């Protein structure tokens, strides 16, 4: 690639399916297996050719974007990152339209709650105009699907098909050899008002590209993780802990405590007289006393005492005492008996 690869991540949504966690933070900064969702999204691009030259474009919403900027400045100070703002939630294509001044040359994009395991190193040698990452699924009717011809080229993207004849679900990751092509298609999409419920969908813009004769192929992924709902977040946390994010070998001995791996426990967390695990992530400065916690994500600075929690997601700086069962609590809240 002569031009630096643009890696574009739209993250302007309100994250309503993850509330109350997203009342106080944008969805990409929700905790997950020792890091944030955004950190895992960024990690999955490290195999792109000439990664050090890659330039990121983050498309933020009108609220809480400062938290994203602060996180990037603190954790990725040497990266080239441009920011655009989508003032109204008018769909995926509109988000890219707001960032059009930054989108030129080769472009890779993924949505901020999409995690895949994939090797991007082939992009230097890619011959097609575009690539759509897909995964066969048992029931494609909840997803968008890619229709392909006998040559393996994509002929059309269809949102939420009514039948199950094609199970190639698009996972929300695309490559375009020329980002300007996508922006031009989005411009036509907006001019023709090709929308659904006042939202402009990426699939319609891509179909315009295909109608213009651009060639797109699919690339299958084996692992596709989602972080868009509480249930999916816990499932993804479980998968990551089982596949390399367990830090059991770095955990100190805790007083009268049993740890059942896999877990990810921050070294600054304190645990006593408790049972933790399996599948527990515990944030910086969290304190757990006289409690049993399984299959849960516990945020930074949270204190939990005399509780039995399972399949729970607890935000930062939360106080929990005397609770049993399943909790979903946002930052700076409490549940005390």
Overview of the structural elements:
- The protein is an alpha/beta fold and 337 residues long.
- It folds into two domains: 6-226, Spore Coat Polysaccharide Biosynthesis Protein SpsA, Chain A (Alpha-Beta Complex); 246-336, Hexapeptide repeat proteins (UDP N-Acetylglucosamine Acyltransferase, domain 1, 3 Solenoid).
- Helices cover 19% and strands 31% of the residues.
- It is built from six helices and 28 strands.
- Strands 5-4-1-6-11-8-12 form a seven-stranded mixed sheet, with helices on both faces.
- Helix 3 (92-98) packs across helix 4 (179-191) and helix 4 packs across helix 5 (202-211).
| Total strand segments | 28
Lateral arrangement of strands in the main beta sheet: 5-4-1-6-11-8-12
Helix coverage percent: 10-25%
CATH architecture of the largest domain: Alpha-Beta Complex
Number of H/I helices: 6
- Provide the β-strand percentage band: 25-35%
């Amino acid at each position: 690639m002569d031009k630096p690869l643009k890696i574009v991540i739209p993250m302007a949504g309100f994250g309503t399916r993850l509330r109350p966690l997203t009342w106080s933070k944008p969805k990409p900064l929700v905790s997950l297996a020792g890091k944030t969702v955004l950190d895992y999204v960024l990690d999955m691009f490290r195999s792109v050719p000439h990664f050090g030259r890659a330039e990121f474009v983050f498309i933020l919403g009108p609220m809480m974007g400062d938290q994203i900027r602060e996180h990037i400045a603190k954790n990725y100070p040497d990266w080239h990152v441009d920011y655009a703002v989508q003032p109204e939630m008018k769909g995926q294509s509109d988000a890219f339209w707001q960032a059009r001044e930054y989108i030129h040359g080769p472009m890779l994009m993924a949505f901020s709650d999409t995690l895949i395991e994939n090797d991007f190193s082939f992009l230097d040698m890619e011959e097609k105009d575009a690539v759509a990452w897909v995964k066969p699924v048992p029931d494609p009717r909840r997803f968008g699907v890619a229709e392909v011809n006998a040559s393996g080229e994509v002929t059309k993207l269809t949102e939420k098909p009514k039948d199950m004849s094609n199970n190639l679900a698009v996972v929300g990751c695309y490559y375009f050899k020329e980002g300007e092509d996508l922006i031009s298609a989005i411009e036509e999409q907006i001019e023709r008002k090709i929308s659904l419920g006042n939202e402009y969908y990426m699939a319609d813009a891509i179909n315009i590209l295909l109608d213009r004769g651009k060639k797109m192929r699919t690339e299958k992924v084996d692992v596709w993780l989602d972080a868009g709902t509480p249930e999916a977040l816990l499932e993804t946390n479980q998968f990551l802990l089982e596949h390399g994010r367990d830090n059991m070998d770095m955990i100190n001995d805790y007083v009268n405590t049993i740890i059942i791996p896999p877990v990810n426990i921050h070294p600054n967390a304190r645990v006593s007289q408790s049972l933790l695990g399996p599948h527990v992530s515990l944030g910086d400065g969290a304190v757990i006393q006289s409690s049993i916690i399984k299959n849960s994500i516990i945020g930074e600075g949270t204190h939990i005492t005399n509780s039995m929690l399972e399949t729970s997601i607890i935000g930062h700086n939360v106080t929990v005492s005397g609770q049993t069962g399943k909790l979903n609590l946002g930052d700076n809240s409490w549940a005390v008996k």
